[in-house]
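Hi D.,

Good news: the full-assembly prediction came through. Inputs first.
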Amino acid sequence: MARDSQAALVALNRFGLGARGGASGDFLNAASDPRGFVKAELARPNGVLLEVPGLQSTPALGKAVFDYQFEIQQARDAAAKSAAPATEGQPPPDAKAQRRNLSLNSIAMDMAPREPSKEQPAKPPDNPNAAMAPAEAMRPNAPKPPPAPLNIIQKTFRAEALARLQRAVMADCGFTERLVVFWSNHFCISANKGGPARMWAGSFEREAIRPHVLGRFGDMLKAVEQHPAMLFFLDNQQSLGPDSRAGKNRNRGLNENLAREILELHTLGVGGGYSQADVTSLANIITGWTYAGRLGQLGAPGSFVFNANAHQPGAQRVMGKIYDAPDVRQGEAVLADIARHPSTAKFIATKFARHFVADDPPPALVARLADVFMRTDGDLKALATALVDSDDAWKAPLSKMRSPYEFLVAAGRLLAQIPNDPGRYLGGLNALGQPLWSPAGPNGFPDTDAAWAAPEGIKLRLDISAQIASRLADGVDPRDLLELVAADAASSETRKTIERAESRQQALALLLMSPEFQRR
Amino acid sequence: METTMGCCEDMRSLVTSRRALLLGGASFAAWAYLPKFARAADGRDPRLVVVILRGALDGLATVAPIGDPDYAGLHGSIALSSSGPNAAVGLDNFFSLHPAMPEFARMYREKKAAVIHAVATSYRDRSHFDGQDVLESGFAGPGRVQSGWLNRALEGLPKGERVTSGLAVGPTTPLVLRGAAPTVGWAPVALPQAAEDTAMRLVELYQHRDPALANALKQGLALDKAAQGDDMKPKPGTNGVAAMRLVARGAAKLMAADDGPRIGALAFDGWDTHANEGGPVGRLAQLLGGLDGALAEFETGLGPRWRDTVIVVATEFGRTARINGTQGTDHGTGTIALVAGGAVKGGRVIADWPGLKPASLYQGRDLAPTTDLRAVMKGVLKDQFGIAEKVLAENVFPDSAPVKPMQGLVG
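Then the structure:
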């Protein structure tokens, strides 16, 4: 087959996570069969699953976080009782300590090549005035006291992040990982909501998103809305049917948060034909959708349960249809119906095309994707396949900025650096405004070019690129890397800029910032 | 380090937590067994510092052949002159030194500094990367070798005259010091995020290829400056005058210690002066001032060790003899090497001067090289550390037997 470098760029950047360095041959493979290169991953449905030894199920993680928080609370109570100063010395149960270790510099450290000779531990000399003691003026460099040990929440978050990052850096094309990120952002939770959210951010994606990325939208929808992480994030565990036994006893009632976002953000979209009455009805319908707590009265701690005591009894009308099942099936029936609603098809198709192709995607492409979604009853593999099969998706100019996540992962792939510590990447994502699993609101991270091409963001990317380059340029030739990134699809200006850079470091930083690397 | 906007505060502050010591191949156990170095013959305790100027220094602008009748015409508006304001400092009847280097001029007068002119590596093309590869690897051509001549020199030291690990200054070990022999690394805090030169090159690329990104980046750079509050303050970076001094001060302190590294290597960026190079004042003058300050910092910081020290300053190639249309110079060939230090037999410009007549120029463009840079390096290594000529010709600079060590540079 003829070699098509421009199509290879589309395959690797628009659909994938960028060419890997080393001897991967990614660019050549993509150039010889661009669509086949992208679609190969779709043929391996189980390849989307992320099963890594040590990563635990949501209930197991739930029990651990409940126990941890209970211990902290007990210690606090004991301290308060003995009138001692509050919980000093207690590890903070929140994310602050975790963020402390994140730094831009450490991304570069993480990506730095690890020569065997450098693996030896750095033992300080006995004599403080010896050769390696920093000069007086460099005092800030003095070794810092060791950081406090990570608590269970921090450890879990880092392990989940590491597993995801490693998968992303190693994936063949990265198309299915891109799909995971897309759906995970569509059905986002925020780890900043609190301990359980941080604990579950990774398992939520592994359990509710990944199994369905090449399956049915309706199945993903149900898995997401019944996942403890989502129920916690959007407060549904607090929502009580006003006429339920628990609602009457406790004089508390409905919380519409999850119901509203299901209709507005997860399925029909704003203007998708629902009313406030529909929101209220749906909120009533999903009362009782919660998870079992530490004591396990309703079930295994941390597992999804339907609490009939909290459920609003009676039939409800949503979008003109009556739902009268007496239990969890009432809500499941609503989800199944709105999952195949034409508004949902249109909303998903638009978002999908916007993410992969252009901020204002070709209307014909959106229409085709919506049609596929409707015809196949929300078959997401068919949707992804239709996208890759569409000529529109290949013809549109590469005009979108890579998101910070895509950028950092692409850099890691190109430089063949498999992360072994997530802190570096997490720090870079924080700095660039896309902290992992922590968008500012339930609408997720923005997905338009303007969001990521902002002045401060670009300047920060340049700083990060320079940092990465200062660690990694030795031992690589940026001219060779440009061949891996874009080959003859590279513009002559980019080629010249890299060739004329005055050092490898500068050339690598410029390559990472080039339009060929930043745009997709 | 200046803190910028709130969103980056976390990151910026943590940049300063860069580990002081980046152990590059440092084998502590081996180090501990190494005897204190002293030359068996005369008890000297020599030091060697290699300074690499990345981007190709204009040797004709630094040590100007004012006595050459063709010089002023070729270098045009940026040529140095021996009279007027900012006059060049006469080194002999023929060569004058850039006025931005008073410390080097003093060392020269004290016969502790020398210039080798019309010098080049064996590389004859014009790629920075390949040129730096040749300069640092010590091989005759670019070959992506993963060890440098200074590291192999450490390995080639006579038995019993082993020195402690080489010191690599900066965020990474320069190729010249990479290899099997142990090295330690050190970097001052807050080395550049992105040098201004890199940012400007990127703006240029974006202007041609991606105007939206060009605008965003320009605004981002302006924001950054505003946040730093002081436009005039030199930005942190290896090409800032203050930063060069800072780097040298730290390295000198480490190397001055009794059990400190005897050999060090560092690199300064920013010498690729294609446009607005400047003459006695301007961009190149600033860089040369930084280099001059760095040499002075080594002299001060090494204290009594300065007596036995040689600093060699080298660059990957030179620049065109004739200035270009943008008041700068392009990639050329012949350039200079500088040596300074208490162990240098200085007060001389060493040159087999080829002349600047059109017919004498290399490819009609460049100062023709008449001295192989390897001869300079070999001469220094031989005299400072007693490394045998055979080892220099076979291991340190492979296949370089015809290039004889320069005699009498050190002593």
